[in-house]
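Person: Please comment on this record:
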Amino acid sequence: MTTLDTTVHGKRSFASRVASSAGGGVMRVFLILVAVFWLVPTFGLLISSFRDPTDIATSGWWKVFTAPSQLTAKSYKSLLENDAITHAFFNTIWITVPATLLVVLIGAMAGYAFAWMDFKGRDWWFLVVVALLVVPVQVALIPLADLFGKIGIFGDIIGVVLFHVGFGLPFAIFLLRNFFAQIPRELMEAARLDGAGETRLFFTVVLPLGAPAIASLGIFQFLWVWNDMLVALVFSDSQSQPLTVALQQQVRQFGNNIDVLAPGAFISMVIPLVVFFAFQRQFVSGVMAGAVK
């Protein structure tokens, strides 16, 4: 029996040996190189944000390694003195935080209802939610712009928030319903026998157990809203535009205004990166757990 095993291992193909070796240190090194290569543009933007506009126009960002005297904080001073950019930064916060919290809260309550509450047409309503996942954002731009104009919120921050909430809820409900449905039924029944109502059951049992999925949903929604420009271009005006739109306006109006664009673009990029890398474990575990019932 031992001789047979040795013969079989000796006849392994070249492709099999390559695949086996790739699963170890070679693959780790490759992934690290890919990650470093992916971060090079971000690092270059960081260096450019600390360089003088004349230096940016005459040489690449890597020249700073041979001439470190090029580094300066003047660009960030110009950014802080630009009222349009600073106002847009706070608008981004006023849009992103409510849109994220509302999607997480409403999605969690709806996900719990679809997973553990019996009501007429529950499965059919859930199929409607799943069907909404495939509806593209572009389809609703004109109808909702017309609706928001009639009710007087077109161009306001609340209109941008409501749009993000409406299109973020289908995925939130789908993700959290699938996650909540995996909670052991015996645990839910035991809590009910102890006298827990639906509200207490939701806040004391379901939400703590669903923390990984809720965290991943919050990160996903935050990244989507923070980086959005299409919805903000349509539904915001000069007083409610977020940072993405403000930077785009700077490019269109002042093409050589690199002393504002470079630090503004880096700040717009680095905050989502920090949020994602800080909670990447919760993001991956929550999405994987909610995607498979």
Q: What stands out?
A: The chain has 16 helices and no strands. The two ends are 41 Å apart (CA to CA). Confidence is low (pLDDT under 50) at residues 4-9. Residues 22 and 28 are 8 Å apart (CA to CA).
